[in-house]
Amino acid sequence: MSEKRVKQLIVLSASLVATLIIANLLALKIWSCFGIPVDAGIFIFPLSYIAGDLLAEFFGEKIANFVALIAALFAVLTAALLGFACQLQDYPGADNQGFEIVASMAGQVFFASIFSFLLGQFTNNRIFELIRGKSSSQQNQQDRQAGAFDLSFMAAFAKRAITSSSVAHLVDAVIFELVAFCGRLPVVDFVIQVVSAYFAGLMLELVFFPVTYFLVAKDRRLN
Q1: Does the global pTM surpass 0.85?
Q2: What gap in Å lies between CA 90 and CA 203, rounded to an integer?
Q3: Would you give the DSSP letter of residue 135?
């Protein structure tokens, strides 16, 4: 593996881990989106699917799945350490109220997020790989020679990236809402949250798609 590929793997792996943990921290803030309760993690969580697409494109399904698993394990470790820290005796006079609020994230909703993230990433990577299939070396060479803005390559990458994300976001949203809120919300509110979470996450990822495509196309042109 070239030095460039190693750096890409490090950056994308770190991004996936950080995105998952930061999204759960932001999820502590619930805001009103046209009257629908939405957590603020929605603004960064779609970046995990962008990182997942880039990992699958550059390194294949197995490595992309392995990085997703590592990200989930670090998120679980974060929750475990927060829980452990909460059990430590407070220093007299120290105000730990802020920490206790942050530590409260390590509950059912937090683990629902990790579980749904992992299943969503596995689904995304599987569909991405199935659509891409096995490309011949001749086709790879043609893609590189075509330049960064070849329309045929753009269509092929958009198909596998958007299709895989569309299905994965649905898996993510349904699993998360089921584990986190099933039985705690009226059926109508539950369905509204699933639908809104799905479309909000997918739309935000589509907004960033030109950047994702540019990074992939540039990489193929230079290699």
Answers
A1: no
A2: 44
A3: -
